[in-house]
Design brief:
heterodimer; A: about 50 residues; about 95% helix; rod-shaped; B: mainly alpha
């Protein structure tokens, strides 16, 4: 492989790493939001009973 | 649903893609006489902006840590958490891209005698400690104080890292911008600027998203506690 190819691979690897990190943060937010929603529903159901 | 941080982050990532393309296709090549590996020099458009973003994240970490330590403010703790993660990600990007360039240009990826390299690595390791330490400890005032103290005192490495190549230039190249000795081609400066803006936008977006994430984690813990109390 030429130096240019190694460089492109390194760049794409780093962009992919940042993309995975970003996706992880967003996915954790979604998961927490749905857990919070179900707990809030459970708590409000308890109150109404 | 609050998606402001996510939108800002996506703009930052798009800017990084543009920086990559411009750096590879548009920016002029460096002189073959001045560099042993002129192709590898193109990683400069990623390496320098990631270092800038890491310094920005460490600055935010210092603000969050100090404000938490003295004022016990919840937003400051959220800023501490989000900026330590952002500092770790961008610090690793900078170290990794520097190793790639060093291996091509110097023949070795690392130099243990170079002050700039080693103080920056210590900053990155500090953020690694803060990220892993927080995940392994139960949340509480004492744990937050300990991590904030590291965030505050660790900041002393930022100015040392900044002046290192001016005072003790060993292997890492000296400054090429914001200096009277600088001689950066204008096209190179444009790509570098786009990279710096993109990394700054990415970091702002991630800190916003990270602060919101910490808020959600704390809210979930609170609700779980309420639920357990009612179940008993």
């Amino acid at each position: 492989m030429s130096g240019q190819t190694y460089l492109v691979a390194a760049y794409l690897g780093m962009i992919a790493a940042l993309g995975i990190w970003t996706w992880t943060v967003f996915a954790r937010s979604r998961t927490l939001e749905s857990k919070i929603k179900s707990l809030e529903n459970a708590l409000s159901n308890d109150e109404s009973e | 649903m609050n998606i402001r941080g996510e939108v800002v982050t996506m703009f930052g990532l798009a800017g990084l893609g543009l920086t990559f393309w411009l750096g590879m296709e548009w920016a002029p090549s460096v002189s073959i006489n001045a560099f042993k590996a002129p192709d590898a020099q193109r990683i400069f458009y990623w390496h320098v902006p990631s270092a800038w973003a890491a310094m920005l994240a460490f600055g935010l970490l210092f603000i969050g840590s100090t404000y938490w330590f003295f004022k016990r403010s919840e937003w400051a703790w959220r800023l501490h958490v989000a900026s330590s993660e952002a500092g770790l990600a961008t610090g690793l990007m900078c170290v990794w891209s520097g190793c790639i360039w060093g291996a091509a240009e110097w023949g070795v990826p690392w130099d243990w005698t170079d002050i700039r390299l080693n103080t920056f690595a210590m900053l990155t390791l500090l953020s690694l400690y803060l990220v892993l330490g927080r995940k392994s400890q139960p949340d509480g005032i004492e744990a937050r104080d300990t991590f904030s103290a590291f965030g505050m005192y660790g900041f002393v490495l930022v100015p040392i890292t900044y002046v290192a190549t001016r005072l003790w230039q060993i292997r890492h190249p000296g400054p090429v911008i914001a200096t009277s000795e600088g001689s950066l081609n204008s096209d190179m400066s444009i790509v570098l600027l786009i990279g710096a803006i993109s990394f700054t936008v990415l970091i702002i977006g991630h800190v916003m998203a990270g602060m919101r994430l910490t808020n959600l984690e704390l809210r979930l813990e609170d609700l779980q506690r309420q639920y357990e109390e009612r179940s008993e």
